[in-house]
Amino acid sequence: MYNVRKVTEDLYWVGVNDKRIDLFENIFPIPRGVSYNSYLLLDEKTVLFDTVDWAYARELVKNVETVLDGRDLDYIIINHMEPDHGASLEAMLELYPKAKIVSTEKSFMIMRQFGFDIEGREIEVKEGDSMNFGKHTIAFVEAPMIHWPEVMVSFDVTNGVLFAADAFGTFGSLDGKLFNDEVNFDRDWLDDARRYYTNIVGKYGPFVQALLAKAATLDIKMIAPLHGPVWRSDLGYFIDKYDKWSKYEPEEEAVMIIYASMYGHTETAAQALATKLCERGMTNVVMYDVSRTDTSYLISETFRVSHIVLASVTYNLGIYPKMHNYLMDLKALDIRNRTFALMENGSWAPQAGDKMEEFLDTEVKLMDVLNERLLVTSAIKDVNEHEMDSMADSIIDSMEKRRESIEKFGK
Ligand code: FEO
């Protein structure tokens, strides 16, 4: 049995949905699965755009055979050689011995590193090159670090389809719904799209900005990414999200409180602060237990919100390990432009506050730390009320200043 969908009159989605995988890249939980998109163009020549994960090679083969309907495969364009897209190339090369591979120099290097026999089959392309396959001309645009260095995107100048590689992708299995207008993206997909982008490509904001600048010169009618829905309407909505994320601009004026609590006292303090913020009219507040939340969700929310409160117990005279893990990811992904407030708890030698502030001052870029810090000694008490009010006031005040700055200077 095959499972394909028509994208345009001569372009077919021949990808697969993976609902069996628990961890994408063996790191990120994906409870909704993921799709590996592959596309097949039937022109005077036949052209396959990328392949799928090896675990689904059989399904890809069936889909491609069905759409080719007896024709041979002439070309395979590889935009991205990470194995979730490139692994089944090996099967395609064996099945279609006359097919040529069109890709970048670095991509061919990676194919050889993975042990693929590609000799005599390479057509190397670079920025500005294009190829004609009959009715369709495909232009190649280099897109390094989105999300590996070999990446390119391919633009069909004939009908405006952008084969965007990992860009504009998202976690989530398609389950039959291929196009963005067949789903409620903002309600059902945006959180996964943000979590996908921020954790996979979030580190490479300047490279995404460079690609967006190139994309602005193209007359794009449709975006066909390697994961998630194909965009055939409202492209500006998703491009705008990418613009914000890659500039490290918060999407919303909001507070995320991440707490590390061993016996519930730090959590109680975090809850009290959330209440005080809501009493002051800031109800866009979310709370996460760092021990029970995969860091990928915290990273995603970090890109969404403007303000982050870290509430940590002191552990082995330092930051609670899981909170430290979040901070290390913040650094690894080069996230910036957020305002932090710090809460610490220590029963005999509180250290977490100083250590977190030192980390935010020295290890990451352009982070503000509010002066008002809350110290809890073992458990929150009436005496902490004033400090708690000061912290809530300071967060609200910082939001007002941010709003004024956006009005005056646009940021
Ligand atoms: Fe979906 Fe970078 O691979």
Automatic annotation (TrEMBL):
Name of the featured protein: Flavorubredoxin
Pfam families hit by this protein: Flavodoxin_1 (PF00258), ODP (PF19583)
Top-rank taxon: Bacteria
Record key words, sorted: Electron transport, Transport
Xref: CDD domains: flavodiiron_proteins_MBL-fold
Family according to the record: In the N-terminal section; belongs to the zinc metallo-hydrolase group 3 family.
PANTHER family: DIFLAVIN FLAVOPROTEIN A 2-RELATED (PTHR32145), FLAVOPROTEIN (PTHR32145:SF20)
Residues in Flavodoxin-like domain copies: 255-396
InterPro entries to which the protein is assigned, alphabetical: Flavodoxin/NO_synth, Flavodoxin_CS, Flavoprotein-like_sf, Metallo-B-lactamas, NADH_oxidoreductase_modular, ODP_dom, RibonucZ/Hydroxyglut_hydro, Rubredoxin-O_OxRdtase
Coiled-coil parts of chain: none
Cofactor(s) for this UniProt protein: Fe cation
